[in-house]
Every structure is written in C-alpha cells, then in structure tokens.
Amino acid sequence: MKKGLRMVNIFDKLSNKIQDWKSETKGLLEKGSEKVLSQVTVGQAYGGMRGVISLICDTSRVPQDQGLIIRGMPLKDLVNKTPEEIYYLLLTGELPTKEEVEDFSADIKKRKHVPEYIWNVLKAMPKDSHPMTMLDTAILALQKESVFAEEYEKGIRKEDYWKPTLEDSLNLVAKIPAIAAGIYRMRFNKGDIIAQDPNMDWTGDYVHMLGISGNNKDFKDLMRLYLVAHCDHEGGNVSALTTQTINSALSDIYYSLAGGFNGLAGPLHGLANQESLKWILETMEKLGGTPTKEQLVDVVWETLNSGKVIPGYGHAVLRVTDPRFEAFLKFGQKHFPNDPVFKTVDLLYEVVPEELKKISKIKNPWPNVDAASGAMLYHYGLSEFSYYTVVFAVSRSLGLTAQAVVNRAMLNPIIRPKSVTTSYIKDLVS
Ligand code: HAX
Q1: pTM for the complete prediction?
Q2: Which residues line the pocket of ligand 1, CB cutoff 6 A?
Q3: What is the 8-class DSSP label of residue 201?
Q4: Is the pLDDT of residue 248 over 70?
Q5: Number of C-beta neighbours around residue 71 at 10 A
C-alpha cells in the first residue's frame, strides 16, 4: 500500500468524531475565547515556559499528582492493552471493539513494507552513527512517500488535510518497528536484517525482527508494556511540542516526527533511559555487584557533587512517582525479582528520593519512567544502551502522530508565540 487515499474504518470513525470535536470547540470559542488560561511571568519566560498553559492536547494529559492519562483513562488501567488498541484510543478517544481492532491491525499490517532504498541509506551511514540519528535519517528519507505532501501539491481542501495526514501516520507507524529493528541489527553487527512476518502484530513483529534470543514470551510481554507505556505524554514536552510546531507549518508527518525525535534524543528527555542504566551499571561495577543502601547514598552524593543529575529522577511536570515506572517495577517484581540490576533499581527507589528531598531546588525527587525502563530491556539481553531511545521512539510515534492528525483535523493554525528581548525585560523590571 503506497500512495492514494483509501477509506477504511478508522477514517470513517474519525470523520464522525471530527465533526463533533469541531462543533464542540467552535461553541467553546464562541463562549469563552477571552477567558484567561494562564499568565506568564518573567521567571517563566526565562524558565523554559514551565507551567504556562497555552496548548491544547486531547490525546493524553499528565496531572502532576497522577501521571499519564490517555484519553481519560489512567495508564494503570491500560497496561494490558496492545499498542494497536492504544493507537486507536489515542486517535479516536475510544478503545476499539474486537472487530475494530482486528480491522485496524490488519490495515497496519498491510502498510509495513519498508522500501529497499531505506536500507541503502542506512548502510551508507558511518558505522558509529547514533541509532537515533539513523532512525531520524530513515524517517526523513521516507518523506518522499508522503501522501500529504502529494495531495497538498495538487491542492487538497483544508477540511481534508487530516486524511492524508492519517494516511502518512499509519504508513509510518506501520514501518517503524522494521526500521528500528533493522537499525539494531546493522548498528550492533547482529547479522542480516530479519524479514518481516506479514502475520505478526506490531509488537510481535518488532520482537521477531530484533532477533534477541532468550525467553521470548516474557520479552514480548515486556515490549508490549514498554510500547504502551511510552506512547504519549501530553503536548508540552520537547518531542511533542517540536513535532506539533513543525506539523503546524503544514510540513508532513515525516518532517514533523523526525524533528520531534531529534528532541527525544536529548539526555534530559528520551536519552535519560540510556544514561540511567549506564549510571547503574557503572555503580555496580565499581562496588562489585548489587550495592547496599548505604553505598548507594554515597554514590548519589558523589554524582550530585560532581555537578551531574541523577538520571531517571525528577520531572518537569510530575510531582509523584511516575506510574510508568510503577508498571515496570511491578513487571520486574513478577518476572525477575532476583536480577541484580533490577534489585539495584528497586533499592535506588528507596534511596534516591530521600536524598533528593534534601535539595530544596529539586521540585520532584521521584523516579520517572527512565529509572527502570533500561534495566528491563537489559534483563532480556537488549544491552546496547544507545539503542534504548529508539525503542522509546517506536512507542512515542503513536502519540505524536495521533496528536498531529487531531491538530490537522481541528485546523489548528501555525504555532507562533511572541518573543521579547532582554532589554524589553530590563525596561519592564525597572
Ligand atoms: N538530579 C539532580 N538535580 C536535579 C534533578 C535530578 N534528577 N532533577 C532536577 N534537578 C535540578 C535541576 O537540574 C535544576 O537545577 P538548576 O536550577 O541548577 O538548573 C533544579 O533541580 C530544578 O529543576 P526542576 O524544576 O525540579 O526540574 P526541571 O523541570 O528543570 O527538569 C528534568 C526536569 C527531568 C530535566 C530534571 O529533573 C532532570 O534533569 N532529571 C534527570 C534526567 C531525566 O531523568 N530526564 C528524563 C525525564 C523524563 C523524560 O522526559 N523522559 O523522556
């Protein structure tokens, strides 16, 4: 399935929803467009716009005392769902029926072929390229497949922009597991790329193509949880805001997602899972195995005193333990409670928050998802840290593309806040 628009269930389903969403928003704007959402202080302007409410994102929200809620449903109630069900939920606001998810999964399966030129582009890259650079390069190289770009060129009606955006999103999401698995095998000399299995679902095929041996059933369960847990995190984080800003310029989903993923590749965002496991393993190596709590307290202060952050702890929005961390902790406690790395993750959870609480400037001493996610992959033999953000990105492609489809459907305008100069602030302050 390459170019050309096609009506399938998800398109029909969304068509109806979009009519309702639009009239609801129109009513809200007529009634309350002058209502104030938040005021911006000088501190916030200099402080990364923290806490400034100025975006609408309906796919998920992250209350600071609860963590991820996808379309009104807390993550803890969704941990047994498949990524296909979650993608449907993100896009439409409803969990699919059995028939709907079967149709939706079948549609995704039809779109998963990766063109040969993508492998050639990846093969031509330097052997020591970061896996995230490879993923972004592959996504950008795929841009020539964009149905939106083609339809826009022809002159599509504004009201229909969302349809080719959804078409592009489904095509890209369907291909991402194969691209990500291919990158893993190429970048870490794992042998030939493993061919897709046309009958396997999104998670199953990804696990199959990674080709990691071991207890496959449990690894697949972990990956399903992983791909659900990382799918979306409202609209203001670096990768979401970047993706939606690019998308708002009517750049297609390939440009938008690659841009967002460049942000995900940063150590304060998606790369933190790599940093976190690296830090844990270095600690274990230095101390010769699973450390004691007393030893961990010393390591935490050594890290802080050397000017570094404790990776996997803190959050720009959350003020409680991240429910995604809790979901992984539960999985580890069930499947491998005696794994020494997992035990260290568990111990750190007892130690780090108490120490970070002693530093008043840190607003959230609790673990975020990245404090556990790397250790989970490591247990099953996925031990190449620099690949971890790619797994995160595979999952986040669901939320970011769903946000883009919704934004197009709602005809949201180009994102364009206003900046001021330091001398403007000087005048204001004096
Ligand atoms: N270790 C040490 N210091 C920390 C800290 C941590 N884990 N978390 C916050 N701080 C520090 C900040 O660096 C900041 O110090 P300065 O004022 O000297 O710059 C101060 O405490 C206030 O920060 P904050 O308001 O509590 O948090 P921010 O919103 O500024 O930052 C971060 C949020 C996630 C970037 C931060 O907590 C951090 O760097 N954590 C470690 C890295 C990490 O785990 N990132 C992943 C976050 C989840 C995610 O997006 N995944 O993709």
Answers
A1: 0.94
A2: 50, 237, 268-270, 272, 304, 309-316, 361-364, 368, 370
A3: -
A4: yes
A5: 19
